[in-house]
Write a structure and sequence with these properties.
By secondary structure, the protein is mainly β. It has one domain (9-720): Beta Barrel (Maltoporin, Chain A), CATH 2.40.170. 4% of the residues lie in helices and 55% in strands. The protein contains five helices and 40 strands. The protein has a 22-stranded antiparallel barrel. Strands 3-9-10-7-8 form a five-stranded mixed β-sheet. A hairpin with a 5-residue loop joins β24 (444-461) and β25. It is globular and about 80 Å long. The chain starts with 8 loop residues before the first strand and ends with a strand. Mean pLDDT is 89; it is low at 1-41, 384-388 and 490-497. It is found in: Cell outer membrane. Residues 233-671 form the TonB-dependent receptor-like beta-barrel domain. Keywords: Cell outer membrane, Membrane, Receptor, Signal, TonB box, Transmembrane, Transmembrane beta strand, Transport. Pfam families: Plug, TonB_dep_Rec_b-barrel. Residues 1-27 form the signal peptide.
């Protein structure tokens, strides 16, 4: 859709009148289509005149192609201020951190691919679990992103941030082969077949393997494939997409620091080499859009089936000194859903207005269980012999959960004056859920339902001298694990004096922002934000699950800049500073939530950001360098110390175009061989018989760390045909 003749510059973009559910239809028009001149840099479209907030944007495919990334999920770090890391290796969902939030595996960042939700509610391992391993990087065509609860089309998990990954409709015929020093090999092949009637068929497949420099090697293997049939555009056309993925390997979870310092394991080792993962996923999705002079319609449907098995031993010998504390978490999930929205544009004298009405629905049928294992073998004493599976610390559980999330929304944008527009949105979500035990003789554990009304809106002033000012406020939410809401499963959700966790935990946010491009070749965005949650999501390492916690607040400032001094180079920087606190008084935190000593929030970073340089069309040369930054953070609720140090890591790509269809690329990761933890926690473990005898089930409180991959290199050859 975007016609660009060079890496940087000004191009004409045909903006459809449809309002996509990804919040990408920001242009306003009084006709069916309007040719709008926008500035395109390697990193983002200039959203002046179209954005709802200063922190909203679109990342182009050009940056995604140039950005040096070790794993596919790190492509989301193109979203300003977002850090994507891991704490268990390649086979699990990434860790997401933004605006002072540790979003664990996806509690408050809603990720979508081709309108399909990636997050999994009531997941076996973490609420909102968002595993992107099934996707292939060459199929990205761009990322639309939002921050804050100000967008009526975005519901569950999207209150802090959301990403909508767009797929290519045209993939150049190519083979991409790479090999690296950490036992990583990857082979991708794909291309496009054109039918005589204008239809296009994309076929792509990938085989991948990663050892990761760990001891023992992770031996993570991946197979993925995609078929995509399309015609026209998203605004006026249709597509049908099928995807398949299977991955498996070892997990190297966070390990006790004393085991590393004492030489029991090296810094890339593990106390339980049988930890691991297996995942499989297939999906079918479709999209249809039609545009007329004053209206547009967009609809999509999807069907997803996924399975997941995780083996994790976080506490080692703390609870079961004889067999160890390894647990197996299983999930089999089927998801069906879709959305439709209609957009109407009208002009009344000099006032232009656009109204979008939308309907979304998602249904999940989810089997989840949790078993105590040793070396991946389920232990028999989960059952006491009389059918009681709920004995002991490691209670075996197995649940059949159904969930339905129905969302209805409306949003109106009115341009009252050339320098004044307002955006008003309303959203109503109604979630229902049931929980049945597979093991109990009385299987029905309960049902729950909750509606939530969410008003939201923005006022935008400008542009004046290429400057716009924004004020936004709104209400959003995240859902909680149904088992915790019903208190039907030990160690899930919360068992606090304050009562059970809400099914929908609401949040209220405010943001003041500025967007400026008055200086030639420089674009600036700045935002000051505050966001309150009625219930914080926290990761419980002992349970390997997320739990609902006390009310919380984030306050901070976010700055972004893109500068293109020459046509072949861009410098960009994004940084967010945040203050994260529980805002109940100390007595309430201690008595109701068990948080003593203060209001600090565990694993909430004070700084996130990145700085980079992108180069293209410098003769045959291209590439990029990026510094990834994660600031320090408290490791326990309540007090400032102990504290995780965070990290700063630099990655580098250097590429050379040998011919128009043949290019070679060298990637260097962790360029300065930083010895820092990509994730860090603080909790109690027992790691040997002496500690068991001395400390028993109290264990030894210690830093638990998962280190960044060491200095490594990867060579990639891309051949077109």
């Amino acid at each position: 859709m975007f016609r660009r003749s060079s890496f940087l510059g000004v191009v004409a973009v045909v903006v459809p009148s449809a309002a996509a559910p990804s919040a990408n239809a920001w242009a306003q028009s009084s006709s069916a289509q309007e040719t709008v001149t926008v500035t395109v840099t390697a990193s983002r479209l200039d959203m002046m005149g179209r954005a709802i907030t200063a922190s909203q944007g679109t990342v182009t495919k050009k940056e995604l192609d140039l950005r040096p990334v070790y794993r596919v999920g790190q492509l989301l770090e193109a979203v300003p201020g977002l850090v994507v890391t891991v704490h268990s290796g390649e086979g699990k969902a990434n860790q997401y951190l933004i605006r002072g939030y540790n979003l664990d595996h996806g509690t408050d960042i809603a990720n979508f691919i081709d309108d399909m939700p990636v997050n999994r509610p009531t997941n076996a391992h973490g609420q909102g679990y968002s595993d992107l391993n099934f996707f292939m990087a060459p199929l990205f065509s761009g990322i639309d992103y939002t921050k804050g609860p100000y967008f009526a089309s975005i519901g569950d998990f999207g209150a802090v941030a959301s990403t909508h990954i767009r797929l290519l409709d045209e993939l150049p015929n190519q083979i991409i082969a790479s090999a690296g020093t950490l036992g990583d090999e990857d082979l991708f092949a794909g291309g496009t077949y054109h039918f005589t009637n204008g239809m296009r068929l994309i076929a792509a497949g990938e085989l991948g393997h990663v050892d990761g420099g760990t001891t023992p090697p992770q031996n993570f293997r991946k197979i993925a494939s995609t078929l995509r049939l399309s015609q026209g555009t998203d605004a006026d056309g249709y597509s049908l997409t099928g995807m398949y993925y299977k991955g498996q390997g070892r997990n190297i979870t966070d390990q006790p620091l004393r085991a590393i310092d004492g030489g029991v394991i090296d810094r890339f080792g593990t106390l339980d080499p049988t930890d691991g993962s297996q995942s499989e996923r297939w999906s079918v999705s479709s999209h249809y859009g039609v545009t007329s002079e004053h209206w547009a319609l967009s609809s999509s449907l999807y069907l997803i089936h996924s399975t997941m098995v995780l083996w994790n031993n976080f506490t080692h010998l703390l609870d079961d000194p004889l067999n160890g504390d390894q647990e197996q978490q299983d999930e089999t999930r089927s998801t069906a859903g879709g959305q439709t929205n209609a957009t109407y544009r009208r002009a009344f004298w000099n006032i232009r207005t656009e109204t979008t009405l939308g309907l979304q629905d998602r249904f999940d049928d989810d089997y989840i269980d949790r078993r105590h294992t040793r070396d991946r073998v389920v232990l028999p004493y989960c059952n006491d012999g009389n059918g009681d599976y709920s004995i002991g610390v490691y209670a075996c559980t197995a649940d059949r959960v159904t969930l339905n999330d129905l969302g209805l929304y409306g949003q109106n944008t009115t341009r009252w004056l050339p320098w004044l527009r307002t955006v008003a949105g309303l959203r109503e979500d109604y979630q229902t859920a049931t929980d049945r035990s597979v093991l109990s003789t009385n299987p029905f554990l309960g049902s729950v339902h909750q509606p939530l009304f969410q008003p939201k809106g923005s006022i935008v002033i400008g542009p004046w001298r290429e400057t716009e000012l924004y004020y936004s406020a709104g209400k959003g939410f995240h859902s909680d694990d149904v088992r915790g809401v019903l208190q039907s499963v030990p160690l899930e959700g919360t068992q606090l004096n304050a009562g059970r966790a809400p099914l929908l935990a609401s949040t209220f946010g405010q943001e003041i922002g500025l967007r400026n491009s008055s200086i030639p070749h420089l674009q600036l965005q700045a935002a000051i934000f505050r966001q309150d949650f009625t219930s914080e999501q926290q990761y419980d390492q002992d349970a390997g699950q997320d739990v609902a916690q006390a009310p919380s607040r984030r306050e901070g400032v976010e700055l972004s800049a893109q500068w293109r001094p020459r046509h072949w180079i861009e410098l960009n920087g994004d940084v967010a500073f945040a203050k994260a606190r529980y805002f109940e008084n100390a007595a309430t935190l201690a008595s109701t939530y068990g948080i003593a000593g203060g209001a600090y929030i565990a694993n909430a970073p004070n700084v996130t950001g990145s700085f980079g340089i992108l180069v293209d069309d410098l003769g045959p040369w291209f590439g990029g360098v990026e510094q990834r930054i994660l600031g320090s953070y408290p490791l326990t609720d309540g007090v400032k110390y102990p504290r995780g140090k965070g990290y700063s890591e630099t990655n580098l790509d250097v590429g050379y175009k040998l011919t128009p269809k043949l290019k070679l690329q060298l990637s260097i990761y962790n360029l300065f061989n930083t010895h820092a933890a990509s994730a860090e926690y603080y909790y109690a473990t027992d790691i040997n018989a002496a500690e068991v005898a001395k400390y028993g089930t109290s264990g030894v409180s210690d830093y638990q760390v998962h280190y960044l991959e060491p200095l490594s290199a990867r060579l990639t050859l891309t051949a077109g045909f």
